[in-house]
Amino acid sequence: MKKSLLLLLVFVSTTITAIAQEFELGEVTIEELKEESNEIDPSASAAILYKTGTTYFDIDKNGNWLIVTDVSVRLKIYNKDGYDYATVEVPFYTGSSRSQRESVIFKEAWTYNLENGKAEKSKLKKEGKFTEEINDIWSVEKITLPAVKEGSVIEYRYIKTSPYIRTIPTWYFQEEIPINSIQYTLEIPQYFVYNRILSPYMPVEEDVNTERITKEYSSNGRKAGYGQVNTTIRSQMGSVSYYIHRKTYTVRNVSPLKDESFVDNIDNYRSYVKHELAKTSFPNEFEKNYATDWTTVVKSIYNDENFGRELNKSDYFEDDIKNVLKNNKSGDDAVTAIYNYVRDRMTYNDKYGYECRKGVEEAYEDKTGNAAEINLMLVAMLRYAGFNANPVLLSTRDNGHVAFVNRNEFNYVVAGLESQDNVLFLDATTKQGAPGLLPVRALNIIGRVIRDNLSSEQVSLIPSIISIKNNTILATIDEQGNIEGQVRRQYFDYNAFMFRMAYGNIDEEEYLIKQEKRLDDIEISDYTVENRKENYNEPVVEKFSFVGDGLADVVADKIYISPMLFFSMTENPFKLEERNYPVDFVFPSQDKHTINLNIPEGYVIESIPSPMDVMIEGNVCTFTFKIGSRGNMIQVLVSENVNVSRINPEYYSQLKDFYSTIVKKQGEKIVLKKA
């Protein structure tokens, strides 16, 4: 047994060493330049041949801890679609202080091409380097490699340095293109303990060892960054010796990550390793906890002057809220009145965050603010009115899931009105919003409600109410196959919210042009809409007349008509053979269609599609198709129900078959025959 274990350790160590030895920048081979496709995915436009990264801790000249990540890449471009990979972007945080800035430096960058049987390399030129500002706190370092063409191999190396030691940069083992070999090494000093999440989406080899090192610096003391991480290292000689715990992760033959419809954020399902500082333990100092449990995290957030203190302020709004609540408004009416007041008064500046940037008072005066300023203001006003309101921390969909106990993956906050049975969520950043409807960016599975007594609780952000869309059509078809009629559409709850977000401010003529094209090029007239820009608690109602000359086929003495006219689903949205991540519908929904079709005089019904009821196991999704006739009238009743917001991947094959069945059924025709 011991011998087998020893042989396994030797094999793993040898494999990792071999990878490190076989990849050196500047050693591109003729075989790599001749390669015409990738074995893992022959259709790929580019592939990463090798990628290595090392993250380690360093000490600057003043004794401050730094996190340094050194990355080297060799990448093959197979065709013109892969040219985009010759532009490399690395974002970095600039913050508000020069001492708190991250930095990125590209150390090497070359393009290799095969010329007359030999490798010819072109060095990155000065004009190929750019630094671009994303916003007031983020920038990106960018390079564009020269002389790129089909068959090129590019190499580059960059070093990113950060003073923010609470979060080690996330390392991804998977990209949108295949990866032949990828290796990541992390070296953590003995003073730091980090929580770790290693995603389960692919097997990763791990190797662990420990080494003692010595670092020199010029100051006897230092305070290390990222807010509350304050420690001191002292040494008479201006140096410190400590052990580092080194872990190396290795993966080979990585298939590309392919996006598909109904994915919340594809990065959630990419293979990765994440770390969050849990505690520090320095010589001659008490151990400090940062993210060992939720109590510690909540305490650090609530005691932050840009969070908890802002909730305790009320002088700036008291007179206004008294006026809002006059006429004895109470209960739901009071909640809606306060919510509408904040929503209508404030303008969201599109800045995420759960901490205030300029503070609630200044934001209230300016009538503009970030997510924290607007929604913490809302919490304070609801509390002032006597409601049990608390902030709810969450991570937005584009920020990814919250993986473990930490504060740094949260980047947003909403208000939560707690009752005995549930939590009513409110977000006043969206002009089209209503109580209970969070913007889609905030619907990211779970949040954490935190209270002024420093207790907290995980809450589900997944909508449970079924949002309905009703389509009612009364139409007539003539002998030439032309169809005209009237449509009434009702959008409820999230369907109404999504309609207002998409079309609330769009020009009506522009909207109708888009609708005509989407609905099989019908011609719309007499259009009216209710509750598009007001009464946000009410459904949106559209009414219009239409004429369509391509909705039926006339062949000899027969007319062929789709029973759902221009509402038919013609393509299955799910195309992958298998899927390893959930299907995200955002919210449960019901789409109902009631279609009454008058057939022309002199025609009879030769055939109609048969009725159908389809269900996915557990009533996850249902589809009902009913059709009947009376005299010259055909009535079609269709209901498609998605009863959950998310469907686990084990249901994927059933879901794919479910939609294939819908497409096939809706593709069947009503056949009319001249009598």
What does this structure look like?
An eight-stranded mixed β-sheet has the order 5-4-8-2-1-10-13-12. Strands 25-26-24-23-30-34-33-32 form an eight-stranded mixed β-sheet. The chain has a five-stranded antiparallel β-sheet with strand order 20-19-18-21-22. By secondary structure, the protein is an alpha+beta fold. Helix 6 (331-345) runs antiparallel to helix 8. Strand 33 and strand 34 form a beta hairpin. The radius of gyration is 30 Å and the shape is globular. The chain is built from eleven helices and 36 strands. The chain has three domains: 42-289, Immunoglobulin-like, CATH 2.60.40.3140; 295-460, C8orf32 fold (Roll), CATH 3.10.620.30; 467-674, Jelly Rolls. Residues 1-20 form the signal peptide. Residues 71-191 form the DUF3857 domain.
Percent strand equals 35-45%
Could you please say which CATH topology of the largest domain applies here? Immunoglobulin-like
Tally of discrete structural domains = 3
Helix content: 10-25%
- Count of distinct strands: 36
Unreliable stretches (pLDDT < 50, length at least 5) are 1-20, 220-232
* Rg estimate, integer Å: 30 Å
Number of helices: 11
What is the compact description of this entry?
The protein is 18% helix and 39% strand. With 675 residues, the protein is α+β, with helices and mostly antiparallel strands. The chain folds into three domains: 42-289, Immunoglobulin-like; 295-460, C8orf32 fold; 467-674, Jelly Rolls (Sandwich).
How does the SSE layout of this entry go?
Layout: H1 2-22, H2 30-34, E1 46-59, E2 65-77, E3 87-93, E4 103-115, E5 118-123, E6 129-133, E7 138-144, E8 153-162, E9 167-172, E10 179-189, E11 192-198, E12 205-216, E13 239-254, E14 272-280, E15 288-289, H3 294-302, H4 308-311, H5 318-324, H6 331-345, E16 347-348, H7 360-366, E17 368-369, H8 371-384, E18 389-394, E19 412-418, E20 423-426, E21 446-450, E22 456-460, E23 467-477, E24 483-491, H9 493-503, H10 508-518, E25 523-530, E26 540-548, E27 552-555, E28 558-561, E29 583-584, E30 589-598, E31 603-607, E32 612-615, E33 621-630, E34 633-642, E35 646-647, H11 652-666, E36 670-674
Parallel strand pairs: 1-10, 16-17, 23-30
Antiparallel strand pairs: 1-2, 2-8, 3-7, 4-5, 4-8, 6-7, 9-14, 10-13, 11-14, 12-13, 14-15, 18-19, 18-21, 19-20, 21-22, 23-24, 24-26, 25-26, 27-28, 28-36, 29-35, 30-34, 31-36, 32-33, 33-34
Helix pairs in contact: 6-8
